[in-house]
Design brief:
alpha+beta; Four Helix Bundle (Hemerythrin (Met), subunit A); paralog of FGE (formylglycine-generating enzyme); 2 domains; four-stranded mixed beta sheet; three-stranded antiparallel beta sheet
């Protein structure tokens, strides 16, 4: 099958099977790293009421894999039906999970390993085409499970950032780059483009279906907003001037005494931050990290700009004005490489603003994929023709005004769970996530 919006062909079931195997193995290797770098008491502790104990995530990963691959795809009997309720994310809020009779670390590891062994056998024997079953067509269920595990790996990395004390995770820093000297913003011409996808094989339900969107012309930042730029907002009294804040955001920062991004503190004449257990000077050239939607929105107002809408962000990331096509990624249809984007926990920080010229869009917008999740102005809503699949709790129950959309992924996101159509969302107060932003402004129609 060929995606008419991308030109990418996914018609080789054996290649897709190898892709699914690689995605599952990569996810499990990362899960093992994130759960083996601490002693058992740290796995069972809750390090923030916003996050689950790490051991809950570990067993939940195995439970979801059992539910979808062993029971649903293969029709096998349940291995551990007794724990389904413990690891149902909707049955128990995160703050309650430490009080549950969770599997201890060794048992959780053994359970996840047993499920994985059986799942790999199922992968070898499952037909990827011609069955008429949406769940197995193109290996969707296996891709869904790989994405699910990588999403929990990202939440576990967030938990490690929240933990106090040393964090035994290491990774090389991104390569230093010359200071970015390109234009501060680029014009995205007005007109229609194709948003979303109907045939990307592992796209999740909220990315579907592909549909036409008419977007007026606008300007968008070439790079994400940097720490240096954000410090100017702070220095100008950005956190003490209610003119820049949405009423709910102003009330929130007043109530919680917020005056800087999460993990920042002032030390004399400089800003310091805590990053995975270590304290360091806030690097001026990196995209700002750990800011809420309210903070991003306030900065944009202060700068005389605004946050881009979700449709604007995706048009900047996918639309090729020369061909009129919507590509899979800003650089085209090819899968990400280390030259394109900062993904997959290869580094434990964003790369300097202006990095990855090979990953820029046709219009020259950089770092739209990887580094930091980017807040948009949009609420999470279904696309026209949306159908929940394979369960409404993935997206449908979150639709509405409570959640704001983030786009583009972060350094903590694996490529399997990040593409030009991928949609993330969270409450506008959330700051523990690896979130940043870029700004936009309207353009006159005669600017095209």
């Amino acid at each position: 099958m060929t995606d008419p919006g991308t030109g990418t062909t996914f018609d080789d079931p054996e290649a897709l099977r190898k892709r699914a195997l690689a995605a599952l193995l990569t996810a499990r290797e990362r899960t093992a790293l994130l759960t083996s770098c601490v002693e058992d008491p740290e796995l069972t502790a809750q390090h923030s009421p916003l996050m689950s104990p790490l051991v809950w995530d570990l067993a939940h990963i195995g439970n979801q894999e059992e539910l979808w691959l062993l029971r649903t795809v293969a029709g096998r009997d349940a291995l551990r039906p007794d724990i389904d309720g413990l690891y149902d994310a909707f049955e128990h809020p995160r703050a309650e999970r430490p009080s549950l009779p969770l599997l201890p670390p060794a048992e959780a590891r053994n359970y996840a390993a047993e499920v994985r062994g059986r799942a790999l056998d199922i992968l070898e024997s499952t037909a990827f085409e011609g069955t008429g079953a949406r769940l197995t067509e193109a290996g969707f269920a296996f891709g869904m499970i790989a994405q699910h595990e990588q999403q929990h790996d990202e939440t576990m990395l967030i938990t490690h950032q929240l933990r106090r004390g040393p964090v035994a995770l290491t990774a090389p820093d991104p390569m230093p780059v010359p200071a970015f000297t390109g234009p501060a913003e680029v014009l995205v011409p007005g007109g229609p483009f194709t948003m979303g996808t109907s045939t990307e094989p592992w796209a999740l339900d909220n990315e579907r279906p592909a549909h036409a969107r008419l977007v007026p012309p606008f300007f968008i930042d070439t790079t994400p907003v940097t720490n240096e730029a954000y410090q100017a907002f702070i220095a100008d009294g950005g956190y003490t001037d209610r003119r820049w804040w949405a009423p709910e955001g102003w009330a929130h920062i007043r109530e919680h005494s917020i005056d800087a991004p999460l993990f920042w503190r002032r030390d004399g004449g400089q800003w310091l931050r805590r990053r995975f257990g270590a304290t360091e000077v806030v690097p001026a050239d990196e995209p700002v990290l750990h800011v809420s939607w309210y903070e991003a929105d306030a900065y944009a107002r202060w700068a005389g700009r605004r946050l881009p809408s979700e449709a604007e962000w995706e048009k900047a990331a996918r639309h090729d004005p020369e061909t009129g096509r919507s590509t899979r990624y800003p650089w085209g249809d090819a899968d990400p490489t280390p030259e394109h984007a900062n993904l997959g926990q290869r580094h434990l920080r964003p790369a300097p603003a202006g990095s990855y010229p090979a990953g820029q869009s046709p219009l020259g917008v950089r770092q739209l994929i990887g580094d930091v999740w980017e807040w948009t102005s949009s609420e999470l809503l279904p696309y026209p023709g949306f159908h929940a699949f394979p369960y409404k709790e993935y997206s449908e129950v979150f639709f509405g005004s409570e959640h704001k959309v983030l786009r583009g992924g972060s350094f903590a996101v694996d490529a399997v769970a990040c593409r030009g159509t991928f949609r993330n969302w969270d409450y506008p107060v959330r700051r523990q996530i690896f979130s940043g932003f870029r700004t936009a402004r309207d353009a006159r129609p005669d600017s095209v």
